[in-house]
Amino acid sequence: MAEVTLERVEKRYGSLVVVPELDLKIADGEFTVLVGPSGCGKTTTLQMMAGLETVSSGRLLIGGRDVTALPPKERDIAMVFQSYALFPHMNVRDNVNFGLKIRRTPAAEMQATVLDVARRLQIDSYLDRLPKELSGGQRQRVALARALVRRPGVFLMDEPLSNLDAKLRVEARSFLSKMHHETGTTTVYVTHDQSEAMTMGSRIVVMKGGVIQQAAPPLEVYRKPANRFVAGFIGSPSMNFLELEVAEGALVDGAAGIRVPLPDSRSAEVARSGGPTVVLGVRPEHLRLLADGERGQCTTVFQVDVVQHLGNEMLLDISAGPYRAIARAGAESLVREGERRTFGIDMDRVHFFHPRTEANLAIAG
Amino acid sequence: MAQPDLADERTSLIRFAQNHKFVTFFGILVPLAVFAVFVGYPIVFTVYLSFFDWNGMAPEKTFVGLENYRYLLFSDKYFYTALLNNVKWVGVTLSFPVLLGLIIAYGLRSRIIPAPALIRTVIFFPVTMSLISVGLMFLLILNPLFGAFDTILQSIGLGSLVMEWFGDYRIALYTLAVVSGWAFTGMPMILYFAGLGDVPKETFDAAKIEGAGHFRMLTQVAVPQLKPVTAVVVLLTLFESLRAFDLVAVMTKGAPFGSTNVLGYLVYLESFWNSRFGYGATLSVAILFISILMATFVMKKLMKGAFDV
Amino acid sequence: MSDVALMMRRRSLIAGKLIGLMLLAALVVVWLGPIILVVMTSIKSNDAFLAGPFALPTEPTLAPYVMVWNALGFDRLLTNSFLYATAGSALAVILALVPSFALSRFDVPGKKLIFGVILTGLMLPQQTVLIPLYDTLRAMNLLDTRTGLIIVHAAYGMPAQILILRGFMTTIPREIEKAAFLEGATDFQVFWKVILPLSVPGIMVGFTLNFIAIWKEFVFGLVLLNSEANFPVTVGMLKLNSDRYMAVFNLPAAGLVISQIPIVILFLLSYRKLSSGNFAGAVKG
Lengths: 365, 309, 285
Known about the structure:
Chain A contains nine helices and 20 strands. Chain A has helices spanning about 40-50, 90-100, 105-120, 135-150, 165-185, 195-200, 220-225, 230-235, 265-270; strands spanning about 5-15, 15-25, 30-35, 55-60, 65, 75-80, 155-160, 185-190, 205-210, 210-215, 240-245, 250-255, 260, 275-280, 285-290, 300-310, 315-320, 325-330, 340-345, 350-355. In chain A, about 40% of the residues are buried. Chain B starts with 5 loop residues before the first helix and ends in a 7-residue tail after the last helix. Chain B has helices spanning about 5-20, 20-50, 65-75, 75-110, 115-125, 130-140, 150-155, 170-185, 185-200, 200-210, 215-225, 225-240, 245-250, 265-275, 275-300; strands at about 50-55, 60-65. Chain B is mainly α. Chain B is flat and about 70 Å long. In chain B, α6 crosses α8 and α14 packs antiparallel against α15. In chain B, a hairpin with an 8-residue loop joins β1 (about 50-55) and β2 (about 60-65). Chain C has about 280 residues and is mostly helical. Helices cover about 75% and strands about 0% of the residues of chain C. In chain C, α3 packs across α14 (about 250-275) and α4 (about 75-105) runs parallel beside α7. Chain C starts with a helix and ends with a helix. The mean pLDDT of chain C is about 80. The chains are: A alpha+beta (about 375), B mainly alpha (about 300), C mainly alpha (about 280). Chains B and C meet through α1, α2, α5, α6 and α9 of B and α1, α4, α5, α6 and α7 of C.
């Protein structure tokens, strides 16, 4: 059983608190992704799990054991680094072997395991080559092999795909997911790329400033973001935010000429903001360009500034007064730059955020 | 593709000189001239002189052909003693300061040893001392009557280890070599310290996770990645050892019984004390020959790609 | 943390720190010890010295310093050394600047040969060329002159300077001078206005290293000079290894300290810059 638990784990450098008391439970076999912008503490947290950084206070448990004071080699973990950290002077076989040799694995068993893992990762023909003779993708698989051969309880991965080019990255993503299905090993994965987080994790942990903003399965984080930061971070192009005044039955900004009718079903939620304004969050796909003559329920008029053709769809840069937003439109839409058009807002799917606390007002408390 | 023939080489040289007059003159010709006068010519002249017998003052030099060389190789026991001494010296300075420097640098980088700035300063400081000073200092410390070292040994009960550090012809050379090593250790230490900073930290992290302890990390992760630094360190050490003149001059002057003669000092003795400049030149040629051999050997073995030209 | 884990963690931390401190102490004793001893000895009076090497000086006195200073003529010795080190180093750097510039940026024909030549200059044991040097200087009437020694030091310091400066210059991005060349600058202008100002840190490192090397230097000073008036500190100090001075240790000890003070000052002044990897990086390059 290799679940990972962090109890009030904190990391301080002198008086600077980098990760304030963090609580996190990762179930056995889960693929958890720690995601967030640079400096959000995700790598520091991973390093604490690995034992490469000390825990300033709190407890860290792996597989039920308190490993807070234990060195990395006694935690039954394996790690894949962003730069792969292969030993440049050793060939692939010795790189993969390294940990097994230290644990005095018998030669025959070692050879069999290495060969088996190498075959599955398709690097068995490179076993005698040096890292510098391999491509980036091959090196990454060697790093993976080194982690796999020891069959650890937990895999820790620190942005392992960041150094690959875009096409390889997509392939590697599905490969890692497949591997996770086959081995069922608990995996903690760190990345700054939100699309990686969305596609790979069974659970996403969004972090900012060392604090967990939300920890939930991908779709939940997408559809029910806990606060404005998570809402803006997950999803590309990111969610549009408009801070509007609360009026009778509508959200308005007179000066910009915006008037968004507010359905009764959401008015109680908006009222929770307790103040004159509320932040409306609407994803680009929920801002629908209405065709000429079409009527919609909740509509507002925007000016279309830029039309970007992506082939399968269009992205429209739209504005009203000082407000800017991005809307998605079908590839066949008839729209020209400079036009003033009506957009329908799917009010069932929008979010309301508190203007100061930035919390999602739909979440009670 | 065919090899560019000499005509091409020459024209490309001339073309370069024409296009880059300033660079060619001040950047190539001037240093080459300085070099030729102060380094090139002396080497040539030394080789020339080695075939003569000359007292350094008289205007005539007597040509003796290969006589000097014959004497050197077959009759001069001082030469062989000195040669052996150089070998011993190199043995000591390649092991103790280089290894210690490496281990200390690793200890500092891996935070095993605290106060890195202090340690680096303290150990590097003797590198800046003139070897004359170092020599004098240890003459005081290792003095049989008033020296601090013997006093310490006796006070901790190791009095039996006390020896005539300079007087005993069996160990005098090793004393000198160890003293020179003491002063020199700071150099490999600083070079390895900087080198370790360039080794990607993640290779150490990965090794830690795989279960490596410090010894394995030092030998299997650090040292292989430090090969270029080791090449520089070894070369520097070798050249320092060949130059081992200063300490001998100040501490023992070859005594006792010539047991601390090193090749460099022998040249000095023969030329300026025995007034046998011709034979001194012969010795110099021998030293030159040995240096070139050593340098080529080290370059071939360690410097693959370390010196990118 | 659970109690057991806490205790384990504390114990291993303390053990680790203890080992580290012991190593630290050992290193400090071995490398700082002799120096402290010498300094202590140098301020003892004659009687205090006889009391034993570790006896603390009861009445510290500067008398040994005064005596040694006058007897050896340290004012002259220090001035000479300072002159040789400064002038020799400066000259070596100046000679090395353009070659470093050339080797770091241009595809000079015969580059490999030039490097080989430079390396030979570096690795030459000085003793092998003593005789011809002696002879050459004599022919030029530069034997036993300050100028002669300075030139020799510069010539032998030049190869190391070229390596250091060149290594430093290769870290200056090529785009900078490409822009200058595009504007129509000549080689000299690029060198003088672009590369030179940017190389100042490297020049300072190189100058400092060379200064120290010349200050320490002994062989050339010994052989190529005859008059005491011209001796650098290293040669002048040779006198200290005689019965007259070695009878009471405080005298040679004082001489030692005096000879090192300028280097200590230089060290303190430039340590920040030297230790920031510049030095080791330059030597590596």
